[in-house]
Amino acid sequence: MNYTIDKVLAGVTVEEAEPRVREALAAKGFGVLTEINVKETLKKKLGEDVAPYKILGACKPEMAHKAMMAEPKIGAMLPCNVILRTVENGTEVSAIDPLASMSAVENPALMGIATDVKNLLTEVIVDL
C-alpha cells in the first residue's frame, strides 16, 4: 500500500523547495506546527552525515478539530507530515496519505475527513 503523495522537484534543493512547500500548504489552509531537520539532528546526535531531509508537521485546524471530535485519541496521529528529501535529480516532496494512516483506526467517521485532507494534500503536491 502506498502511504505517501509524492512529487520530485527536479534541479531544486531542499532549501529552495521548502518555501514553495510552505506557501502551497498555506494556500490550502495548512499551517506548519513542527519542523524537524533530520540531517542536523543525525549529525548532532549520531555524528552521521546524511543528505538534506526535513519533516514539516502540517495541520489544517478545522480538519484536525473534526477528526478529534470523531476520534478523541486521533491526536496521536497528527499532524500530517510532509517530508522534503534530497534525491538524485532534486528534491522529493512527500505528504502522508491520510487514508492510509487513518485506516489503522476502526472509525468510519474518519474516512470522510481523511478523504478531504488527502484531496487537499494532493492539490498541495500537484501545485508544486
TrEMBL record:
Official protein name in the record: Uncharacterized conserved protein, DUF302 family
Organism domain of life: Bacteria
Pfam name, any one: DUF302
PANTHER family membership: SLR5037 PROTEIN (PTHR38342)
Cross-referenced SUPFAM superfamilies: TT1751-like
Record-annotated DUF302 domain positions: 36-98
